[in-house]
Amino acid sequence: MAVTQQLARIPEGYLAACRQSAAASPDGDHLWDPPAYDVLDLDWAPALLRRVGEVAGLEEVRLDALRRATGGDAALDLGFLNTPPHAIAPFGGTPTGLDASQVVRVSELLGQIDMPVLLTALPADEGEAAALIGQVGSITGGLRAYLLNHFNALRHFYLDAARRHLHVVLWWD
């Protein structure tokens, strides 16, 4: 099974209910089960997207937004989501997250990133481009298409979360 990054858009109340369920359950069952339409699988794209931003010289504020969009923040107390036997991140560290106000700011900054332009900073040769950003192996459909598709999905995911005033929780599964 591949380990991939997952993101979920959730209301603050849902997170509070999961925290309360975990505290009340004898085995820490948080009853975490966000709807499928509010979950995004970013595959292995997060590190590659960040690396493209670095290579292309993306402005620090936008690069930081990309890092936060794919790495979250440890300020939200999400340790209860990583307590066995109900851990949602069995292959990674404790889940991270962004609250609704952070989601709005990240969404605004992601909207200012022109990923097609950033991708032009990569070498034309697919193998050289992959090596530069740390991609091992080939990607069906091509590296640039893969990165652009995942970036667009990430941007739209955050745009919808911001519009709906939702938190975002991130974990590796």
Description:
With 173 residues, this protein is of the alpha+beta class. Helix content is 47%, strand content 12%. It contains seven helices and four strands; from the N terminus they run βαβααβααααβ. It has helices spanning 12-24, 45-56, 60-71, 100-110, 115-119, 126-133, 143-163, and strands at residues 5-10, 39-43, 96-98, 167-172. Strands 2-1-4-3 form a four-stranded antiparallel beta sheet. α3 crosses α4. The model has no long low-confidence stretch (mean pLDDT 95).
Q: What is the count of DSSP helices, taking H or I runs of 4+ residues?
A: 7
Low-pLDDT stretches are none
Note the beta-strand portion: 5-15%
C-alpha termini separation = 9 Å
SSE string, helices as H and strands as E: EHEHHEHHHHE
Helix content: 40-55%
User: What is the global morphology?
Assistant: globular
Structural class, by secondary structure, is alpha+beta
Beta strands, count: 4
pLDDT averaged over residues: 95
**Spatial order of the strands in the main sheet?**
2-1-4-3
Oligomer: single chain
- Biggest sheet features: 4 strands, antiparallel
Offer a concise description of the structure.
The protein is of the alpha+beta class and 173 residues long. The protein has helices at 12-24, 45-56, 60-71, 100-110, 115-119, 126-133, 143-163, and strands at residues 5-10, 39-43, 96-98, 167-172. It has 7 helices and 4 strands, in the order βαβααβααααβ.
